[in-house]
Predict the 3D structure of the following.
Amino acid sequence: MLVGSPEELLRKLFDRAVEVADPIQSLSQHLPRRPNGRVVVIGAGKASARMAEAVEAAWGPCEGLVITRYGYGRPCKDIKIIEASHPIPDNNGLNATIQMLDLVENLSKDDFVLALISGGASSLLVAPVNGISLDDKKNLTSALLASGAPIIDINTVRKHLSAVKGGQLAAKAYPATMLSLMISDVPGDELAFIGSGPTVGESTSPQDALHILNNWKIETPNAVVKSLTAGSNVVPPDDVRLTRVKNRIYAGPQQSLLAAEQLAKSYTIDVVQLGSSVEGEARDVAIDQARKALKIRAERKAGDPPILLLSGGELTVTKRGNGIGGPNSEFCLSLAIELNGVDGIYAIACDTDGVDGAAEVAGAIVGPETLVKAAERGLNGLDFLQRNDAHSFFKAIGSQVVTGPTLTNVNDFRGILILGFAHEVQRG
């Protein structure tokens, strides 16, 4: 039996996925006993300030500095919190990164560094290599994000134009001992691509970065081509400066999906996991999942329990228009169009950091009435999809999910609920 409406249930599942990824709930059990001697805490990402808050709750006041997104700061006693721009870097991020590099320079082998890395660090840790300006990085990041390139490609380019990514932050702290605790937001939980791997050795080359730029037809400044042609300073995995570093993922998408699954099962809902590492163009993945849902619905018999399709990962949007929309809202709009108002199917797609694309909106919820509500307001969903304006569409019909800063980030959460023909909905 569903308690409340299907929309309310989907929102509860998303909230549960976010809750279990909150560093205050989960980080302390992964901390060692506070080391003797000097301890320096550094970090970057949308969850980094919350992670720092959790560290001080367990260890007491600590020396350090973390960089987080505007609006994601937390009150810490001694760890300095600096807010900066995401996903396009700014001067705050640049100046804070320089301060961080200064903080870890000239440490001894008796010192201990705790690095707190989460999604968003790629934009927040910004220190371009010589010859590359901040404007170059901004323009290149904007072009890559609009191209539909997957995050692994985007982060590969970022690393080879950076003085901090691709293991360089850890190398700077050598010979201090370093433990890097990470919240994963990348498909496959690849260490080297979480926050562009500032504490992880890098095996790609500058030529790989050039190939990516060419493959995605990115207009590349001459300074960038010159820099990549000359090489980069990423640190290879076997570099001696990385021998005193331990990298550990302690939270990720799969953990959150399993928590949502457990909650759904408590409502006697069958769950099908489609994977925590789903990638692809948002509108295309939506069509594929909509067809899966329609096939399941067509096979439903009276008395069958509801079925929930869960998935995570990171979808992309190729910018075709000038609308306001991120991958989760675009997924929802494409899904609604493909479902075309069929009865008994509801869905949610949200980013667990509370920010879908560049908008301060987590995502959206759709149901059988989505297109009807739009038509009543004279809106055509396909028009909004064609101009990448899904956020405006869902705002107009009151179906956005707005959370504010969630202080964590384990990437996208998608749930499609297929009700049985004899389902009972108890309205709250």
Remarks:
- The two ends are 13 Å apart (CA to CA).
